[in-house]
Amino acid sequence: MSKKILFVLTSHDALGDSGGKTGTWLEELASAWYVLADKGHRLTLASVAGGAAPIDPASLEAPWLTDAGTRFLDDAAAAAALAATPRLGDLDPADFDAVYFVGGAGAAWDFPVDGAVRATIEAIDGKGGVVSAVCHGVLALAGASARNGGPLVAGRRVTAISNVEEEMTTFDTLVPVLPETRLVELGGIYAKAAEPFGAHVEADGNLVTGQNPASAPLVAEALLAAFAREAADAV
């Protein structure tokens, strides 16, 4: 059965005080997009502020531009959706079966503090929908509460870009909060791949998180598995 999945993008494009630009990391958007779209699921793009969502310029260049990224850029419908995203706060979470918070360093600034991000997560979690995120996008979970009132990630198995990976890319000196550190502070049970930049996904109930860009298609595969379990339970 086709599901409606909301992809949420950052609207933040300044890489701290470095003078550089950031935004969504294209691979984390594109690879997950086609895993789900090619299975017939209905996908909607939104961003925190609405309008044209910024893409990290580094993710548009070799060696980071992948086949999925090229396919997305060449996809007229996908490109049009990216250029004119609705504002997240204008959408009704009740219209969606799952949400996926796409990473990119920009997410470290707006995802953890945005009220619509928090409300979307809590609404979808509250009805048992799948809440998923990857890399810096996992910081969307930092502001959300579980149904018992505590932090959504407390006592849950989670992952996100590791502190080691942040240090290796020097992003630890640029982003306002380190995802691994924040998840642990909130009581999350953090895990990561054996080697930096290796793919790693954690699925704990209806919560699915991925460590880094290489993990994005695996997050989408975990959503497919969750949908399949739901369908089997309904029989």
Plain-language structure description:
By secondary structure, this protein is α/β, with parallel strands linked by helices. Helix content is 32%, strand content 14%. The protein has a single domain (4-234), classed as Class I glutamine amidotransferase (GATase) domain (Rossmann fold, 3-Layer(aba) Sandwich). It is built from eight helices and eight strands, in the order βαβααβααββααβββα. The protein has a six-stranded mixed sheet, sandwiched between helices. Strands 5-6 form a two-stranded parallel ribbon. The model has no long low-confidence stretch (mean pLDDT 97).
Secondary structure topology:
Layout: E1 4-9, H1 26-37, E2 42-47, H2 67-74, H3 76-83, E3 98-101, H4 107-110, H5 115-126, E4 130-134, E5 157-158, H6 163-168, H7 179-185, E6 189-190, E7 201-204, E8 207-210, H8 216-234
Helix pairs in contact: 1-2, 1-8
Shape: globular
Strand order of the largest sheet: 2-1-3-4-8-7
* Percent of residues in beta strands: 5-15%
State the helicity in percent bands.
Answer: 25-40%
CATH topology: Rossmann fold
Q: Structural class of the helices, strands and pairings?
A: alpha/beta
> From the coordinates shown, what is the CATH architecture?
3-Layer(aba) Sandwich
Rg result: 16 Å
Query: Into how many domains do the coordinates divide?
Result: 1
Mean pLDDT, rounded to whole units?
97
Number of contiguous helices: 8
Q: End-to-end distance, in Å?
A: 12 Å
What's the short version?
With 235 residues, the chain is α/β, with parallel strands linked by helices.
